[in-house]
């Protein structure tokens, strides 16, 4: 790779680095952050287990038939599933919010990187105009 750039001038090397090599690296980093956020919040797993009991906290039904005990265990299991669903929905919402934040921050950084040379040149010309 060094031989490829060996016979080029510094300006062409900078243009190749700033507009080709570094944007590839920025997109790779952005993808890594996005993948990490998806894995950290496990949104797909939370959606698959949305109605599962919270921490697998379920009551077992006894062998005999007692309506009161069956009803108590049914209500307890129902509350465990409702609590699990509420907490999972909150975590899904937080995960989607984090993914949105990562997306927009990555987009801002990527576009800022591409626009920064233009802003630098514009700033230099503007400062020279104010000096004259």
Question: How does this structure look, described?
Answer:
There is one protein chain. α2 runs antiparallel to α4 (67-131). With 132 residues, the chain is mainly α. The longest helix has 65 residues, at 67-131. The chain has 4 helices and no strands.
Oligomer: single chain
β-strand amount = under 5%
Structure class = mainly alpha
Distance between the termini: 45 Å
Sheet with the most strands, sense and barrel status: none
How does the SSE layout of this entry go?
Blueprint: H1 2-5, H2 10-41, H3 43-48, H4 67-131
Helix pairs in contact: 2-4
Give me some keywords for this one.
single chain; 132 residues; mainly alpha; 4 helices
In short:
This protein is an all-alpha fold and 132 residues long. It has 4 helices and no strands.
């Amino acid at each position: 790779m060094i031989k490829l750039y060996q016979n080029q001038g510094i300006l062409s090397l900078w243009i190749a680095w700033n507009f080709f090599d570094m944007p590839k690296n920025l997109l790779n980093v952005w993808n890594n952050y996005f993948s990490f956020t998806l894995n950290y919040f496990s949104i797909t797993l939370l959606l698959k287990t949305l109605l599962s009991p919270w921490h697998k906290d379920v009551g077992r039904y006894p062998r005999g038939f007692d309506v009161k005990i069956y009803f108590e265990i049914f209500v307890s299991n129902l509350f465990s599933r409702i609590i699990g669903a509420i907490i999972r929905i909150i975590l899904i919402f937080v995960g989607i919010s984090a993914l949105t934040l990562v997306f927009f921050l990555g987009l801002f950084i990527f576009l800022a990187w591409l626009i920064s040379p233009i802003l630098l040149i514009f700033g230099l010309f503007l400062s020279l105009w104010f000096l004259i």
